[in-house]
Design a protein that fits this description.
By secondary structure, the protein is of the alpha+beta class. 33% of the residues lie in helices and 25% in strands. The strands form four sheets. Strands 4-5-10-6-7 form a five-stranded antiparallel β-sheet. A hairpin with a 5-residue loop joins strand 12 and strand 13.
């Protein structure tokens, strides 16, 4: 495993290096995914551009309408952030189950997204709560909804020179809503240091009558990318979360909305059952809190 390591101090320097080494480089942040892939021979890059010196990408800010999470924020920083624990506990729960303590201390939010694993815990949670990825490259800056960001395993819409700079999480704002809830669950063969067999993140908003105003359900490890359970979401919209509605939405999520495969960790049928059970339990728990 041989490569040249570059440590730019600014975004402009990093983007210039990327242009100079077009087709031969890879950005690196925490390296918890990329280094493993390179050691296994799954990736080979002559030039590695290390972004870890850019302190401006390592902060969490909140304004009136959103959170801005810097791409270099670690999972450990996310899981313990008081504001996120209060407003978006689903994200904190996802960050808390990424690898072990060592991985969470150096692994970053931007890396988890850019790696584009279908089972990426933080990416699934961010998709569920409506995250928007902010990037910068040779052609300038742009913002991309996570709904449109992932193309397949290891593939995103990022252009070659583009760097993820931050993720925006809009704070829900619906005048009719009296209750917002979000949650995340990950199922694996063991509790720690495990890739998900299946995962789900849900964000819901309810009006004064207990009817659903907003429904977002994201699923992980049950398709070629983190995905939305669109049919289940549609079944929930405008409904009261009674037993029948919950069962119908859970069945749609586990069957119509995902396309799992069989691998060494689980069968496709088992993954469908897991999704159905997780969505059902999460929705039932939310209904009980309205």
């Amino acid at each position: 495993m041989k490569f040249n390591l570059h440590r730019p101090q600014t975004l402009d320097q990093a983007i210039d290096l990327a242009a100079m080494h077009a087709g031969r480089f890879r950005y690196i942040a925490g390296g918890t995914d990329l280094v493993v892939q390179m050691r296994r021979g799954l990736r080979s890059h002559a030039e590695i551009i290390d972004l870890s010196s850019m302190t401006e990408l390592r902060c969490v800010k909140k304004d009136a309408g959103s959170y801005q999470i810097g791409a270099l924020c670690t999972h450990k920083e996310i899981e313990s952030h008081p504001g996120l624990i209060s407003d978006f506990p689903a994200l904190c729960k996802a960050a808390r189950v990424v690898g072990g303590h060592q991985v969470r201390n150096i692994g970053t939010v931007g890396g988890n997204i850019a790696n584009a694993s279908p089972a990426a815990d933080v990416a699934v949670a961010l998709l569920g709560i409506g995250g928007i990825v902010n990037v910068r490259g040779k052609d300038g800056s742009r913002s991309i909804s996570l709904d449109n960001f992932f193309l397949g395993p290891g593939k995103t819409v990022l252009k070659e020179s583009e760097i993820i700079t931050s993720v925006t999480i809009p704070v829900p704002a619906n005048r009719k809503a009296i209750s917002y809830q979000c949650d995340f669950v990950k199922i694996g063969r063991r509790k720690a240091m495990e890739i998900a067999v299946a995962s789900a993140a849900i964000l819901m908003a309810f009006d004064a009558d207990g009817r659903v105003l907003v429904s977002r359900i994201a699923l992980g490890a049950v398709g070629p990318k983190p995905l939305r359970a669109a049919k289940a979401e549609a079944a929930l919209q405008g409904a009261e979360l009674n037993e029948h509605v919950i069962a119908s939405a859970a069945e749609l999520a586990g069957n119509a909305d995902c396309a799992p495969r069989t691998d060494v960790r689980a069968s496709d049928k088992y993954r469908r059952k897991v999704v159905q059970g997780c969505v059902s339990r999460m929705l039932a728990a939310m209904a009980a809190k309205i």
